[in-house]
Amino acid sequence: MKWSFDHDRPIYTQIIEQMKLFIASGEYRAGEKLPAVREMAQEAGVNPNTMQRAFSELENAGLVFANRTSGRFITEDINMVEKLKEELASEAVRSFLDSMKRIGYDKAKTIELIEKSIEERGDDKDE
Amino acid sequence: MKWSFDHDRPIYTQIIEQMKLFIASGEYRAGEKLPAVREMAQEAGVNPNTMQRAFSELENAGLVFANRTSGRFITEDINMVEKLKEELASEAVRSFLDSMKRIGYDKAKTIELIEKSIEERGDDKDE
DNA sequence: ATTATTGTATTAACTACTTAATACAATAAT
DNA sequence: ATTATTGTATTAAGTAGTTAATACAATAAT
Predict the structure, then answer these.
(1) In angstroms, what separates the C-alpha of A40 from chain B's closest C-alpha?
(2) Less Cβ crowding at N or C end of chain A, within 10 Å?
(3) Domains contained in chain B, number
């Protein structure tokens, strides 16, 4: 269940986003070797070209690097990984608050809703 | 500045989303008449067909209705509007918490970040 | 040296979204 | 009755993402 895509956005964009999440969360660790493009493409159920395209952008961002032919690896720069994590979180918060504002909820109501929702999810198995 | 689109999702989808926000927030009120399709298309800078497509889906959802030729109107069902608002908020909260979890933040850290962010935004002009 | 594995590039076809131009359908306004 | 306004439908062309098939490039493994 590693990969899942919706239908109204480019797949390669979603691969980039999900890889960023995997890197930020430590599911893929700094310096870790990745499976081959063809293999990841098969796992994800997409064409190798599509997977390749996603990774070529992740390389431009410096988050992964490729050594022909030993394979592809997550960056070894743990500062970059930490920075990525903070950026993703910051963007998640920003866009959430923006959405709530546009829907018509003020700060107090937003805090109220999120705390209530977290309480209700308190018995979830993970965190 | 009413409409704004990004480039990696279908425009008609984004129109639907933004219209839902306008309806939920009361920017467009229940029963209110909408501008003509051609006019809205011009304002948004898109083709009339694209605008039409978005509204035909909003009609399927029951959020608007069209009277040829008097124009198109927001639903008069205020319960539906209220329900829409709650659904949008619920989805925003759900996806936010999911994102934070995938990035690797636990409940406590998530609450901490959002409260901190709201404090920092406390001097904003609106809400 | 040869082979297998890996990343990378190329070309063609297919699909969905968007635009453009135009026409038709219904009815409110005159 | 005529006209203008509105929603709606149709057809063709353009663009971007995806798939498919294939080939090339570099090097680790043998």
Answers:
(1) 20
(2) N
(3) 2
